[in-house]
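> run fold ABC transporter permease
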Amino acid sequence: MSDLADIAPSGTLAQQAGSRPSIRPRGAGIVAQVLPWLLAAAILVAAPLVFTSGTALTMMSLMGIMVVFALSYNMLLGQTGLLSFGHAVYYGLGAFFTVHAMNVVALNRLPLPLPLMPVVGGLAGLAFGIVFGAISTRRAGTVFAMISLGIAELVSSGSNILRSFFGGEEGITANRTKMLRLFDLSFGPQIQVYYLIAAWCLICAVAMYAITRTPLGRLCNAVRENPERVEFLGYEPQAIRIAAFCLSALFAGVAGSLAAINFEIANSAYLGVHQSGVVLLAAFIGGIGTFVGPVVGAVVVTLLQVSLSDLTEVWQLYFGLLFIAIVMFAPGGIAGLALMHGPLIRAGTAHRLLPAYLLALGPLLVMLAGAIALIEMAFRMLVRAGDGTEMSLIGIPLDAAHILPWIVAGAMAVGGGLALRAVLPRVTAAWHEASAAAKEKLA
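> ok
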């Protein structure tokens, strides 16, 4: 698919389409900007009416928290080009300060309602973002990444020492129902907590999108691409980096605050490298650099975390394999793949890809099924042998002690991989054909 760049939104077709004179009424432009946010708000409001179970409400609440967290990370990596291994520091500190604030407000009966608590988390994230950002943003690239990892380890270790603030391994708890009621809402039922998270998710998403449209947002992109040129134009790259860093920390603190409200607890796990790794996975899987990418990644990662953890004990291994596959074969993430097909859809030639895609889907599913069977049987033999070698995989009984399941699973994995490799040239040819047809229509 070497012609992908030719049909990407920033490529030849987009330039040709953009060169045509067009007149768009001012009102139409405003509607086009507002309509997606109104649609997002409608989805957030209607979702609990469609998915009414307690599990669904909990999952949607987690998705809203992860969306804010992933978008804040995208401000750092996708917009400014700063790879951080310690973004959970600001998420966790926002959660801890929120829990302490909730306890102080409840104990002293202060007139502060629960919906304002994310402001506390955001301010905590911003404050520590200023402190740590002044140190870490002096350099970009590998140096910044290593400093961020060092800060993460420093704060994580400090959480075990400052037990009076962090609560040690048990953490600090709070009770959200003891705070001042707003409109007679106790925020005891999960549905009320969901709408609180959804409201803050929408507010933060709008704010972060608005930042990308400002001169600061454009300068962040410029620093990511060519900091030397930005400095030549009279701007200080470090000042731009620290501004983006602080804003990113602010919204990460809001996400941590929402998590503290949802779970009514903050512990050292909020600050750990694992939490930083999860948001990195979400951003990359969805698509770094695009605004909608981290949103998609946050939803997918949360869904997989909840569902896979109930199905298998090695769900984190599958996360790692998915991350490797995305980086190797689709560096633009899920959103990048969708955007690549946009010009073909607009030109009406995307249907030409369907036969080739369906042809490749069969071998891909066979290969994945074989690989999953091998992984699960290996885990059973190496880790869970004491529980017996008999197991069930999607309702199919297997005995890892017998050679036949290994032969069948290995044949499926290898055979599916070879068949997929044989089919890929047809997929490439179909892509070239659809691309050429799209160019002709948009020429």
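The first strand starts at residue 172 and ends at 173.
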